[in-house]
C-alpha cells in the first residue's frame, strides 16, 4: 500500500466566496506545489468547474474528485463526489432543479463564474449558489448513493452550516461514507465532545477559498493507486485500504 | 394550558401524536437550529420551528417537550410523524410564520 495525500474540499472561483485567483490552472499548480495526490473540487451547489480541473490535473498526475458541496434544506453542507462525467451531469441536473431562483448579487456575495483554461469567462451562474436546495439531507444522501457517489457531511465540528449545528446530532441511520472535520480541530479533540461518533470514519480537509490554503490540511489515504474506486475502498476500510488523520 | 387548548385557540392542524394532546404546557421556545434547542429548550415547552427532519422528534423526546409546532404550513417527514405517534409528543402545524405564531402563543401563555 502507498500513502497518498488527499484534500477533498476546495472551492474555485465559481463559488461566490471563492477568491478570483481560484482558477482551474492556479488550483492545479498549487496542489502540485503542495504535494497533493488527490484533490476534491467542491463548489457550492455546482459541479461545473470539476471536469476542466480534472483534465488539467491529469497532466500533473493529480487525481481530481469531481463533485460539489451541497447545502440541504436544513442548511447542512455536504460533500458529494462522483466517478464519471456522465454521473456528474445527472447530479448537476438535480442541483439545477432544486436550487431556488434567487439572483446572485455579485457586489454582496462575489462572482460565480465558469472559466476556461485561458481564464476567459465562459459563463456566469445567475442564481445564488449558497442558497439551500429544496431537498432534505436524507433525499440528498439517497440521490448521491443512487449515482454510486460519495456522501460526506462537511466540517461537522463547525457551529454553523454543519449537520451537528443544524440537526443537533448525526442521525444514526444516515448513510455517510465519512464525516469531515475542519482544520480547526483534531479527531481526538472532536471525539472528546462527541463520543457517540467514535465508530465513524473521519477525513480532514482544507476547505480552501484562497489559493494559499489549498492542501494546507489533508488526510492520508493508504491505497494501491489514486482513483475513485480506491478512495471509496479506503473510506470503507476494505482490502487493507484505510485512512488516517490527526 | 394544555396542548389541545393551543390547537383550538390558534387553529392548528394535528399532524401526529394525538395521544399527547392532554399534556400541560409550561412555556415555549422558537428556534430552527436544532443544536440550540438541544441546549436551551426546557421540559414541557412548545417548540416552534420550520424544521421537519426526524431529528426534531429525537430532540423533543430527549428534552421532554410538550409539542412541536411547524410553521408556514410545513408537515413532518414520515419518519418524524411515526416517532411522534410512538412517543405521544404531538406535532402540530400552522399556516402562519414563526413571528406571528410565536407572538400569539406568547400572549396566550402569558395570560395564565
Describe the protein in words.
Chain A: This is PHP domain-containing protein. Chain A: Residues 6-74 form the Polymerase/histidinol phosphatase N-terminal domain. Chain B: One of its GO terms (molecular function) is kinase activity. The complex is a heterodimer of chains A (246) and B (112). Chain A has 246 residues and is an alpha/beta fold. Chain A has one domain: Alpha-Beta Barrel (TIM Barrel), CATH 3.20.20.140. Chain A is 28% helix and 23% strand. Chain A has 8 helices and 11 strands. In chain A, the strands form 3 sheets. Chain A has a 7-stranded mixed β-sheet, with helices on both faces. The radius of gyration of chain A is 17 Å and the shape is globular. Chain A starts with a strand and ends with a strand. By secondary structure, chain B is an alpha/beta fold. Chain B is built from 5 helices and 5 strands. Chain B has helices at residues 3-10, 34-40, 55-62, 78-87, 98-111; strands at 13-16, 28-30, 46-49, 67-70, 91-93. In chain B, strands 1-5-4-3-2 form a 5-stranded mixed β-sheet, sandwiched between helices. In chain B, helix 3 (55-62) runs parallel beside helix 4. The longest helix of chain B is centred in the last third of the chain and has 14 residues, at 98-111. Chain B is globular and about 35 Å long. Chain B starts with a helix and ends with a helix. The mean pLDDT of chain B is 96. Classes of the chains: A alpha/beta (246), B alpha/beta (112). The A-B interface holds A 74, 136-138, 159, 164-169, 171 and B 33-35, 37-38, 51-55, 58-59, 77.
Amino acid at each position: 500500500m502507498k500513502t497518498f495525500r488527499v484534500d477533498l474540499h476546495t472551492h474555485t472561483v465559481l463559488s461566490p466566496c471563492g477568491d478570483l485567483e481560484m482558477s482551474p490552472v492556479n488550483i492545479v499548480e498549487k496542489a502540485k506545489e503542495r504535494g497533493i495526490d488527490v484533490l476534491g473540487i467542491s463548489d457550492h451547489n455546482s459541479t461545473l468547474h470539476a471536469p476542466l480541473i480534472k483534465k488539467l490535473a491529469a497532466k500533473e498526475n493529480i487525481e481530481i474528485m469531481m463533485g460539489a458541496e451541497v447545502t440541504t434544506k436544513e442548511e447542512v453542507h455536504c460533500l458529494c463526489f462522483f466517478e464519471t462525467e456522465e454521473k456528474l451531469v445527472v447530479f448537476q441536473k438535480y442541483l439545477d432543479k432544486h436550487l431556488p431562483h434567487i439572483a446572485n448579487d455579485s457586489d454582496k456575495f462575489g462572482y460565480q463564474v465558469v472559466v476556461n483554461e485561458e481564464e476567459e469567462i465562459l459563463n456566469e451562474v445567475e442564481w445564488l449558489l449558497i442558497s439551500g436546495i429544496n431537498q432534505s439531507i436524507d433525499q440528498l444522501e439517497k440521490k448521491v448513493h443512487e449515482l454510486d457517489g460519495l456522501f460526506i457531511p462537511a466540517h461537522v465540528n463547525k457551529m454553523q452550516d454543519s449537520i451537528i449545528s443544524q440537526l443537533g446530532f448525526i442521525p444514526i441511520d444516515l448513510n455517510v461514507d465519512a464525516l469531515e472535520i475542519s482544520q480547526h480541530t483534531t479527531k481526538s479533540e472532536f471525539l472528546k465532545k462527541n463520543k457517540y461518533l467514535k465508530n465513524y470514519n473521519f477525513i480532514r480537509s482544507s476547505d480552501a477559498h484562497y489559493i494559499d490554503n489549498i492542501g494546507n490540511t489533508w488526510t492520508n489515504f493508504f491505497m494501491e493507486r489514486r482513483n475513485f474506486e480506491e478512495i471509496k475502498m479506503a473510506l470503507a476500510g476494505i482490502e487493507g485500504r484505510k485512512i488516517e488523520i490527526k | 394550558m394544555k396542548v389541545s387548548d393551543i390547537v383550538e385557540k390558534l387553529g392548528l392542524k394535528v399532524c401526529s401524536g394525538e395521544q399527547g394532546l392532554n399534556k400541560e404546557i409550561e412555556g415555549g421556545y422558537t428556534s430552527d437550529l436544532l443544536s440550540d434547542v438541544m441546549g436551551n429548550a426546557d421540559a414541557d415547552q412548545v417548540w416552534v420551528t420550520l424544521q421537519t427532519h426526524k431529528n426534531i422528534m429525537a430532540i423533543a423526546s430527549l428534552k421532554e417537550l410538550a409539542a412541536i409546532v411547524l410553521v408556514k404550513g410545513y408537515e413532518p417527514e414520515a419518519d418524524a410523524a411515526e416517532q411522534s405517534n410512538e412517543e405521544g409528543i404531538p406535532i402540530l402545524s400552522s399556516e402562519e410564520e414563526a413571528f406571528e405564531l410565536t407572538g400569539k402563543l406568547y400572549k396566550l401563555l402569558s395570560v395564565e
